[in-house]
Amino acid sequence: MSTENYNLYSHFRGQVTLHANKELLCTSDGRSYSYSDIEERSARIARVLTDLGGSAGDRVTVQVEKSPEALCLYLACLRAGLVFHPLNMAYTASELEYFLNNAEPALVVCDPKHLSAIRQIADSTGCDHVLTLDGDGNGTLAGLADEAASDFGVVARQKDDMAALLYSSGTTGVPKGIMLTHSNLLRNTEALVEAWGFTDADRLLHALPIFHVHGLFVAIGCVMLSGASMRWLSGYNAGQVMRFLPECTVMMGVPTYYTRLLANDEFTRELTGNIRLFVSGSAPLLEETFVEFESRTGHRILERYGMTETNMNSSNPLDGERKPGTVGPPLPGVEIRIVDSDGNTVATDEIGDLQVRGPNVFVGYWKMPDKTAEDFSEDGFFNTGDKGRIDEDGYVSIVGREKDMVITGGLNVYPKEIELFIDDLPGVSESAVIGVPHADFGEGVVAVVVPENVADVNEHDIIDACKVRLANFKVPKRVVFVDELPRNTMAKVQKNLLRKSYSDLLN
Questions:
Q1: pLDDT given for residue 196 in this prediction
Q2: Residue 376 and residue 479 in one domain
């Protein structure tokens, strides 16, 4: 057995010790937290979680607003060897019921306003402990942490021990639990710190959510492994971003962040004078956005490619050509190949199925060994479901998504889940959910519905029903009605034709 401690926090701790009195983060309202403040608070929270019976490998389900205290909760789970299971605040009670039943957490931490509903779900799943934490850092978890000892160390973890469990729905409509290990997160963060040149002199503008790989593992990981600092925003607000950009050296965002900045006349070249790097990911960056951003600021946005199952796979270079429309070469230690339907590697610039292998790739789906085996090749490459090509310089381009996933505002939406819900509504015969271009979100969700009788159902009824049962980012922005869905000779719905027909619907 390896003697190396793969616990991600043990590697963060070197910077914590080195920069104990340095500011790690400062909120938009000026509350400052040093590395030692975060170290102590995370230790107290780790003590609370373990005193309540949490032990290494147990899941901790977390659905809370972004806050410094929520960051400490994530770090506490790492150092205690607990498995961090973050959930979007937008998930509804019916969605949460599935997640808790499947993840079987030992503890749940939720926003106080959702306590009643979540306690009921937790009780039904056999979870004994439900704590609260609000966006201001208050709640029963905070109260217990105030009284807890701060002498908690770091639990040793092995290479394949799970650090986080994130869920990503699939084409079947059943969410899949993605098991990310301490080694996955550590090795990928090390590669990113090197590739993007992070040092303790950097200050990151952190406006991303922390229930998602981008804001949680990429942004926070790069900062803590390099000894950098953060301006910590509770959410994305273009005005706040422009206010704090001059003090920062790096900004990470989804394409929507950059299009909203460009839409503001007050966003000028002078505001970006101190920035050394703008990073974009979680959704495709339009070439026109790349070009306009460079024209306005002089900065070429660095686009990279990742997914929940793999963290980051490739990146345009820090030094060297950043090609618009590409996601750059593979990161150090990561292999990317493009194959045909028979698994044979295709020629340069040919389109095929994109596969990934490396220390960043997850170990499998929670409780789904058959699905895990299905999604990996015999020689260990993960089938991403993306269509791509690699040019003569080794730069990867993503040209489509085999699984019809919609990415709206950087968040993944899987059509089958929404279709199953809409198809069960009164008056609906069948539906097809697609993503179409949206000026702000990149893609917007649209439902194409075949009604049983036109008089029995309308657009507002379907949207209102979706709002009750689905997270808001999954709710269709428009519903259109058709007599029948276009199908090929195999009776499969031709969503490409629907996307073409409604490409201008949201713009």
A1: 98
A2: no
Q: Angle between the 68-80 and 140-147 helix axes, to the nearest 10 degrees?
A: 60
Indicate the number of domains in the chain: 3
Q: State which of 165, 183, 201 marks the end of a domain.
A: 183
d(CA 385, CA 443): 18
Full DSSP string of 249-286: SEEEE-HHHHHHHHT-TT--GGGGTT--EEEE-SSPPP
User: What's the CATH code of the domain at 466?
Assistant: 3.30.300.30
Q: φ, ψ for residue 410 (rounded to 5)?
A: 85, 0
Backbone angles phi, psi at 153, to 5 degrees: -95, -135
| 390/413 same-domain check | no
Q: What is the pLDDT of residue 507?
A: 86
Write down the pLDDT at residue 4: 80
- Asked if the structure places residue 221 within a domain, the reply is no
Are 421 and 355 part of one and the same domain? no
Closest CA to 469 of 502, 503, 423: 423
pLDDT of the residue at 491: 61
The answer to the question of residue 208 being in a domain is: no
Reported pTM: 0.88
Instruction: Report the SS3 class of residue 327.
Output: coil
21 shares its domain with 58: yes
Is residue 382 domain-shared with residue 442, that is, in the same domain?
Answer: no
| Residues contacting residue 451 through CB under 8 Å, at least 6 positions apart | 427, 428, 429, 457, 481
- Residue 173: the pLDDT is 62
CATH number of residue 396's parent domain: 3.40.50.12780
CA quadruple 307, 220, 225, 149: dihedral sign: negative
Query: Could you tell me the residue range of the domain that residue 479 belongs to?
Result: 406-501
Residue 1: what pLDDT?
43
Burial profile 7-30: b = 16 or more Cβ within 10 angstroms, e = fewer: bbbbbbbebbeebeeeebbbbeee
Report d(CA 25, CA 261) in Å as an integer. 23
Query: Which residues of the chain are under the pLDDT cut of 50?
Result: 1, 171
Does a structural domain hold residue 224? no
The pLDDT assigned to 353 comes to: 93
Extended beta strands in 308-376, E state? 311-315, 335-339, 352-357, 364-365
Per-residue pLDDT, 455: 77
Q: Per the structure block, which two tokens stand in for 82?
A: 């607990």
Q: Which of 78, 79, 76, 102 is nearest to 87 (CA)?
A: 102
Q: Are 130 and 114 in contact (CB under 8 A)?
A: no
Q: What is the spatial distance between Cα 409 and Cα 293, in angstroms, rounded to a whole number?
A: 18
Between CA 300 and CA 323 the distance in angstroms is: 9
- Indicate the residue among 378, 401, 424 that finishes a domain: 401
Same domain for 361 and 386? Answer: yes
